[in-house]
Amino acid sequence: xxxxxxxxxxxxxxxxxxxxxxxxxxxxxxxxxxxxxxxxxxxxxxxxxxxxxxxxxxxxxxxxxxxxxxxxxxxxxxxxxxxxxxxx
Length: 88
What we know:
The protein is mainly α. It has three helices and no strands.
C-alpha cells in the first residue's frame, strides 16, 4: 500500500513497498511469484454492457470519427492512465 502527495510519490512508495515485501519474503524463504508474461494476453476480450451505454459509446465514437473499438480502447486507456504513467 502506498500514498503520496503526487502520483509519482505514490508510485515511488509502491515500488518501495514491493521491494520491502520481496526482501522479507526472501529472508523468510517464501517463494517470489514470477512476473506475468504479456504474451499470455491476446488483446481481445468480450464485454457485456447496458444497451444505453452501448448506444452512448457508439454515438461518441461516431462524433469522434473513430470505430467503437478505437474509442473504447482510448477510453479504457485513459481511465487507467495507461501509457501516461511510469512503469511499475
